[in-house]
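FORM 7B: Structural annotation worksheet

SECTION A. Query
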Amino acid sequence: MLHDLYKHFSANPSSLLARIYGVYTVKMKNYDEVYLILMGNCLKFENKYDITRVYDLKGSKVKRHVKTNNALSSTTLKDINFMQNKRYMQEVNLNAEDARDLLKVLRKDSEMLAAHEIMDYSVLLGIENKIRGFGDLEN
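SECTION B. Predicted structure
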């Protein structure tokens, strides 16, 4: 699969699949083994203080809710949270071209995973508030 994944990333640089750079086992005296995966950062916010919400979306309602009583803006919410929130606010506002491009990327990623009989695919969606006050406007 590694060769196919490399080909997929080369042909589809906009792929939303995780870039995994290494898988490690850390062994220490008097401690249990720890397993680590080194992955590329997929949420590239310009300013971490602009993050309002993060969602892990799978397209399912089964166990896809996070209690939000004490949730921070960096808490990763799930599908049901997204569906509940979109009732009160415009969560995602894509123009037609961006929506088509996103669907094309998702379709190609899904086809690659399906070819290897992998069905678990999540989309990590970060919502960023970029509305600025008058003091932030350029002259």
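SECTION C. Observations
The chain has three helices and five strands. The longest helix spans residues 96-115.

SECTION D. Sign-off
Analyst initials: ____
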